[in-house]
Amino acid sequence: SKLYLRIKIKVFMRQSHSVDGVQANKDASLTADYGQRTSWGDDDPSVFVVTRVTGLQGEYQICNGYGTTKATPILRNHWSTYIVEADFRFISESGLTAVRIPVGWWIANDPRPPAPYVGGSLKTLDKAFKWAEKYNLGVIIDLHAAPGSQNPFEHSSSKDGSQDWGTTDTNIAQTVQVVDFLASRYAKSPSLLAVELMNEPLAPGVSLESLKTYYRDGYNAVRKHSSDAYVIMSNRLSSPDPTEFLGLAGGLPGSVIDVHYYALFNNMFDTFTVQQNIDFIKTNYSSDLSIVTRENGPLTFVGEWVAEWKVPNAAKQEFQMFANAQMDVYERATFGWAYWTLKNVNNHWSMEWMINNGYISLKN
Ligand SMILES: *[C@@H]1O[C@H](CO)[C@@H](O)[C@H](O)[C@H]1NC(C)=O
């Protein structure tokens, strides 16, 4: 089909880093000057198959790869089976007090989001609010994917590794609209704890200036509808200055600064021993957190952490020490912390699995 062809060509172009070899023919087919032999098989990286291609594997790729029609039942099934009411009961019974729910900007256009996205995410968030209300949990709505993508990763729904958020004023205004929409829809719910304006903007692509403009406007959009919902502002990844939003947030009551700490994503951790990991939490991340946590300053939130590391074949007791070291430090964040994530196919990334198997014990 045409769509299939388009996807092949698109991925092919990324592989070859060349866009000048694609040609439209009179019979409406496209030919591409690949310059190499290709099998077009499932193990051929020039063909889009989300489980077999190394590259981005996010919601955009699922929707674009399958096409909206085929992706619709796949995502709807995921939304209705992956996190269910029993999970909210579990969260509540574990002594946790809130859930941080990532959403994409197209939720504001539900039930008819622009292609290739699939409608139905808004109903799913509505359902989460109902369960949160029932089990007395707070909800942090986390705008995880902003229009144009605020980082090049799949979780900001980058199409192809590009990062364009904040490069136009329209972009910023559109994001404020999304926040306005979400705040307006959920302001009356007793479970609305916070709106997080944006997850993990990456410097220097996201400039300090555009993000300050957006944070101020986004804050005002939340305050239009709610006087008491917290407004969370993420520090920029790769920023040279972790205090760059303290001034702005400090002047806006109910603001929270979000920082994410992982003992991953840096080659330094590849060779760390158990003790080195724990020391790093206790000295470096502890000091990083105290730099942003100031008396009379905004609240602070370790919005993502995980008890996963690069230590090979670690014992259960070592994971317990690692998790405890992190909780001991992160509980000093004045707004709290959140584990990434609740459920995951990889056990250590799944807080439910970690709790159920005794790797994490919450102090209640
Ligand atoms: C971690 O903290 C120690 C002790 O303060 C310091 O010597 C070291 O440079 C820090 N490492 C990094 C990567 O920040």
UniProtKB/TrEMBL annotation:
Residue ranges of every copy of the Glycoside hydrolase family domain listed in the record: 73-344
Keywords of this entry: Glycosidase, Hydrolase
A Pfam family matched in the record: Cellulase
GO molecular function: actin filament binding; hydrolase activity, hydrolyzing O-glycosyl compounds
TM region(s), chain numbering: none
InterPro entries in the record: Fascin, GH, Glyco_hydro_5, Glyco_hydro_5_CS
A Gene Ontology BP annotation from the UniProt entry: cell migration
Membership in a protein family: Belongs to the glycosyl hydrolase 5 (cellulase A) family.
Record PANTHER family: FASCIN, OS05G0244500 PROTEIN
Protein name: Glycoside hydrolase family 5 domain-containing protein
Organism name: Aegilops tauschii subsp. strangulata (Goatgrass)
